[in-house]
Amino acid sequence: QVSTFSWKSVASIFGKAFDTGTIILPVSKVDGSTRFKLVEGKNCNETHLSIVESIDLVREANCGRLQNRKVAQEFASWLDVSRRPMGMSKEEWAAIIRQNVLSGVPGAGPLDVDPNEESENAMVFFIFGALIFSTL
């Protein structure tokens, strides 16, 4: 199921914030592990460093279990900026990210339109804004 934007959800978040005085926003985190290995060569003057990194969300995307479009897009942006391997071109890395993270997520393609709930319109937002200004 593709998640869609909802003005009712936005109104609910801000309504609770005005009632309680606190706002609770969803948080996303990326779990993973990094392993470092130092290997001494035959010659004692040589030491090699090996780094292996595993990011759990990549595995979820590869298995087709990552279905949230926004999480997939934000994760792909983070990978693109902060995890490109040394010596790999930007274009090659972007293609790998598209193939492994974004390809199986509904609505995450570059030409996909952001889905919105059809039953709602800007009137809900207007009513919510008027309600907020009336409480001030």
Question: What would you note in describing this structure?
Answer:
The protein is of the alpha+beta class and 136 residues long. Helices cover 46% and strands 13% of the residues. The chain has a two-stranded antiparallel sheet with strand order 1-2. A hairpin with a 6-residue loop joins strand 1 and strand 2 (47-55). The two termini are 39 Å apart. The model has no long low-confidence stretch (mean pLDDT 78).
Short summary:
The chain is an alpha+beta fold and 136 residues long. It has helices at 7-20, 56-62, 69-82, 90-102, 122-135, and strands spanning 32-40, 47-55. It is built from 5 helices and 2 strands, in the order αββαααα.
Layout of helices and strands:
Elements: H1 7-20, E1 32-40, E2 47-55, H2 56-62, H3 69-82, H4 90-102, H5 122-135
Antiparallel strand pairs: 1-2
Query: Can you tell me the overall shape?
Result: elongated
Distance between termini? 39 Å
Radius of gyration: 22 Å
The major β-sheet equals: 2 strands, antiparallel
Overall SS class: alpha+beta
Average pLDDT works out at: 78
How many DSSP H or I helices?
5
Q: How many runs of DSSP E, i.e. beta strands? A: 2
Query: How much β-strand is present in the residues?
Result: 5-15%
What's the order of the H and E elements?
HEEHHHH
Arrangement of strands in the largest sheet: 1-2
Helix content: 40-55%
Unreliable segments (pLDDT under 50, ≥5 consecutive)? none
